[in-house]
Amino acid sequence: MVYGVQLNQGVGFLNNHGVKSMRKTGFVSFIVMAIVLLAACGEADDHDDHGTGSELNFDPLEVEIIAPEEADPNEEVTIQALVTQGEEKVNDADEVVFEIWQQGEKEDSEFIEAQLTDEEDGVYEIRYTFTAENIYHVQPHVTARGMHMMPTGEIKVGDAPDVHEDEEEHGHEADGHSHDLPDDLRVDWQAAEEVDSGEEAELTVFVDWQEEPLTEARVIYEVWQHGDEAHEWLETEEVEPGIYTSQYTFDNGGDYHVVVHIENDELHEHVSQLIHVIQAE
After folding, report:
1. Which of 10, 29, 55 is the last residue of a domain?
2. Distance of CA 64 to the CA centre of its chain
3. pTM of the predicted model, to two decimals?
4. What sequence ranges are listed for the domain YtkA-like (predicted)?
C-alpha cells in the first residue's frame, strides 16, 4: 500500500510536471516558428527589392555619348554618357570611366571617373578641358549589370583636321595594325575586306601579345555602316589560342567600319578595319 501511494504521488507529480513541460515546449516552439516566419518574410521582401518580384530585364546595355562635336582649346566642356537597358535608365552602374586621348597618342590616355547626375536619369558626366588643337577620342568604359560597353566618339578641337579627312590621310592598314597600339601588341585581320550583302560573313582576328598568342581576352567587334549612327556589338569566340571570331550579316551594300576592342587585365586597346560590302542583286 505504501508503494502504491508513493507510485500514485509520483505519477501525479510526473503528470503535473509533464503538462508544464509540454506547455513550455509548445510556447518555445511557437516563438521559434514565429521567428522563422518573420525571417522568411524579410528575405522575400529583400528578394523583391532586387527585382525577383518584378519582370527581369534581358535587354542589352546601351551607351550613348553626349558631347559637342567641336570645342575650343582651353574651354571646359561637359561630356556625358547616357546608360540605358531597353526603356530603363540605368542609375546603378558599377563603374563609368571616360578614357580621353589625342589622335595618335593613345598611350597617353587620361582616365576620368564619371559621376551620376543629380537627376539620376541614367546620365553620367565629367567636365574636361581640351588643351591642344587636335582630334580627341572619347571612350566611356561602362560596367553595369554584368555587361561592359565602350563606344568611342570624336571631338574636333580648334583648327584640327576633320575626323574623316584625318582617317583618309592615315588610312587603315590591311592587316589591322594601328599606329596607336603598344609595340608588343599585334592584331592581324584575317577576314575578307570585301563581302556580299545578305550573306553571313566570318570576322576573325589573330591577337599576339609580347610574341605570344593573347588568350582568354575579351574581344568585341563594334560594327556600323559608314554614315549610320547605330552601332552593333558582337561577342567573339576564341576558337584557337589568340584567334577570335564572330559571324555577321551585312544587310546593305557600302562601306562598314569594324572596330576590334581587346581587353584583359593588362590591355584595353582597339583597332579599326574597313569592309566593303557588295550589294546583292
Report:
1. 55
2. 13
3. 0.49
4. 59-141, 183-261
